[in-house]
Amino acid sequence: MELDRQIAKDLLSIGAVFFRPDQPFVWASGIKSPVYCDNRLTLTAPAVRAHVEEGVAQIIRTHYPEAQVLMGTATAGIAHAAITAHLLGLPMGYVRSGAKDHGRQNQIEGKLEPGQNVVVVEDLISTGGSVIEVVEVLRQAGARVLGVASIFTYGMQKGLDRLAAANVKNVSLTQFDCVARVAAQEGYIQPDDVKRLLAFRDDPSDEGWIGGNV
Question: What span, in angstroms and rounded, lies between the C-alpha atoms of 74 and 212?
């Protein structure tokens, strides 16, 4: 089975990606969403976790063979960066959302030398804002950021545009379109729901997909 479909099946099987098109979730921004994502659940499902971490390691071997250090995003990417670094025999650290207000006031935790080739490990990318902030912190510290390895991405145009503008490459194990189609094939949602889900992906601010109005 192709890796993106395997990871999609894995995430669906443990509820890490959960579709509810007829009873939308409400994001903090007020946007109604047919999907809920919590990839932290992969950490408590050993078989799925193994697929995920081996998959992230495969991304790095294939797309970022010059990687010297892995840096996780706080907090969701830390465990994935640590496990993947162990598999690859690489050092790892993580980037805080802000500098500490005590001690050495670090924002980057772990040893990082200027000029080192870094890959950022992230669990989920939607609009791309948070991971771009991490990349900028690392760049300011003198790192050469090769790109991002992530578990799941929505593929929203806003996120794609922001990553491109910031010159940040991202490679994900699976993405929204694949998970939606696998969800329909596996009976988690109805086949007709896929079009509604993709309409949400295309424009989250347009609620026309609710009630099948697409």
Answer: 37
H or E element that contains 82: helix 76-88
112, 85 Cβ separation under 8 angstroms: no
What pLDDT sits at residue 103?
44
Token representation of residue 181 = 């189609």
Q: Are 60 and 54 in contact (CB under 8 A)?
A: no
Q: Do 17 and 179 form a contact (C-beta atoms < 8 A)?
A: yes
Is 88 buried (19+), middle (13-18) or exposed (0-12) by CB count in 10 A?
middle
Closest CA to 36 of 132, 152, 150: 152
Cα 110 → chain centroid: 22
Please answer whether residues 34 and 59 qualify as being in contact, where contact means their C-beta atoms are separated by less than 8 angstroms: no
* pTM more than 0.70: yes
Q: How many whole angstroms separate alpha carbon 80 and alpha carbon 71?
A: 10
Q: Would you say how long the chain is, in residues?
A: 214
Instruction: Give tens-digit pLDDT for 172-189.
Output: 999 999 999 999 999 999
pLDDT tens digits, one per residue of 93-151? 999 987 655 545 689 999 999 999 999 999 999 989 999 999 999 999 999 999 999 99
Q: Is the dihedral of CA 76, 168, 119, 139 positive or negative?
A: negative
Helix, strand or coil, per DSSP, at residue 18: strand
